[in-house]
Amino acid sequence: MTKGSAPPDSDWWKSAVVYQIYPRSFADSDGDGIGDLRGIIDHLDHLRDLGVDVVWLSPVYRSPMDDNGYDISDYRDIDPLFGTLADLDELIAGLHERGIKLVMDLVVNHTSDEHPWFLDSRDPSSDKRNWYWWRAPRDGRTGGEPGAEPTNWGSFFTGPGWEYDERSGEYFLHLFSRRQPDLNWENPEVRAAVWDMMRWWVDRGIDGFRMDVINLISKTVPLADGPETPGTGLSYDPTVVTDGPRLVEFLGEMKREVLDGHDLLTVGECVAIDVAHARTYTDGDSGFLSMVFHFEHMSLDSGPGGKFDVRPLQLPDLKENIRVWQDGLATSGWNSLYWNNHDQPRIVSRFGDDSPDHRVTSAKTLGTVLHLLRGTPYIYQGEELGMTNQSFVDRSQFRDIESLGWYDVAVGAGLPPAVALANVASRSRDNARTPMQWDASPNAGFSTGDPWLPVNANHDVVNAAAAWADADSVLHHYRALISLRHDLAVVREGRFDLLLPHDEHLFCFTRTWGDEVLLVLANWSSGEIPLPDGLPNLTGASLLLGTHVDGGAVLRPWESRILRLG
Ligand code: TEU
Description:
The strands form five sheets. Strands 11-10-9-5-2-1-13-12 form an eight-stranded parallel β-sheet. It has a five-stranded antiparallel β-sheet with strand order 14-15-16-20-18. Helix 10 (359-371) packs parallel to helix 14 (474-487). By secondary structure, it is α/β, with parallel strands linked by helices. 50% of the residues are buried. The chain is globular. The protein has helices at 37-41, 44-50, 85-97, 116-121, 188-203, 247-259, 275-282, 315-328, 347-350, 359-371, 401-412, 417-427, 464-469, 474-487, 489-493; strands spanning 18-21, 54-57, 61-62, 74-78, 101-106, 134-135, 162-165, 170-173, 208-211, 265-269, 291-293, 336-337, 376-380, 495-499, 506-513, 516-523, 529-530, 542-546, 554-555, 560-564. Residues 1-7 have low confidence and may be disordered. It binds 1-O-alpha-D-glucopyranosyl-D-fructose. Residues 67, 70, 107, 156, 176, 212-213, 269, 271, 307, 342-343, 402, 429 line the site of 1-O-alpha-D-glucopyranosyl-D-fructose (TEU).
């Protein structure tokens, strides 16, 4: 089945591969050091030739950029940093010409504090006051004093989730930065305004929505304190604000008001979600979304202190988590599959081995394991090149509000700066946001100006031009993985069965579709491993794709094989 030949069906995204673009860091066409829409338009053939079916575009809307665009001040316009609506229309046309669909980012749990809705809402007598969460200080406390916040909810970016407004003597809720006030979805006017905006984009020709922290939009009313996180005086327990009592109702309304009848890809980013909720939201008959993003596999290498409480990954933990989601959504719902995005460090540096000896092989093997799972794979820009983490050696190099927030609070609480720096350096979102590496020229072909974040020094080796020219590159391996999904029903639909669950270095599983069985063998270490007992009979097996051409009884460091069993 070649791309786009399948009959139009509402589940088209089950055979699709999605490519995420973080516009600020993809390609800069006007030399201001910040990526833009024309830069993306200039590189559409890279996406066509890679073979992806969908582009997910992180926000390009008008924004004061407090959180790089996830703080929107006008949902129906493009920020001049990124271009114009005409550029966006040209991007939609250019993608569609190449058989690629466009999914836009929908950020409606919160707006920017510069959005007219919020500017109006600041006035207590405004009819927009109830479009946000305004509350009086905690009983018996004076506004602005520590502990006077209406609830003890912590922000995802560290610190209290409430900001005091002197003028009105009340607080407003912000689960992210204080410049990202949360919308009050209890208010039907808010929902109607969001549906109208979404329809406006659908009418403009887009093919779907990636919905930012969508399982935060329903808060439990009355708002109440959550369980305190030890040593913080705040509650960072995300389940206090996730999967609220009216979320299913709101998603049902969204489906009726916007999604029905449009064959859109809809993926909900869902903090702290579990399999059961994911099944409810994505069930093919009774659900509302095509799929969700969960974070469980992204927190297996961090401790109770959260994302920056860095711990080594235990491979059996990862295998078990993937089995839980593969089995959990095997008969109802659908999985999204990702290692990378604009909020996570580079996977080859995190789960793989980014040393010169093993970077390419481990990047290929990480791709093999992810793309041979059942679900819709997401490739984050640069993942197809095996891009690595940046080497951050000083606080001043970070730009990410989450990283800087955590660093300052951690050091303020007594963590030695060197330890805080090391933790942030390995997990910062800025690792994902260094400029795309197009070639070996000074700014990696990203910009003729001064990039907003420095280009990774290894761009002399790790870049698209070199990858296209090297048949054995990570990029050509990803092209082959994408073709396997397009061509083989067993890859798209086959049942997943994990093998050797407790093995600490091997990740092996089968996919079965009718009498076709694929076996995936992956050495998740930088050492050689002999093929273990407990594998299916390999007699007559044929190699569909591997990191090494010749088989043999030993798996080389980070080697992986996709075998069709005889
Ligand atoms: O991310 C939500 C979210 O939970 C992450 O920010 C999380 O805190 C962490 O970085 C992931 O481990 C979404 C967007 O993807 C992110 O870029 C925004 O900053 C955030 O929402 C607020 O809009």
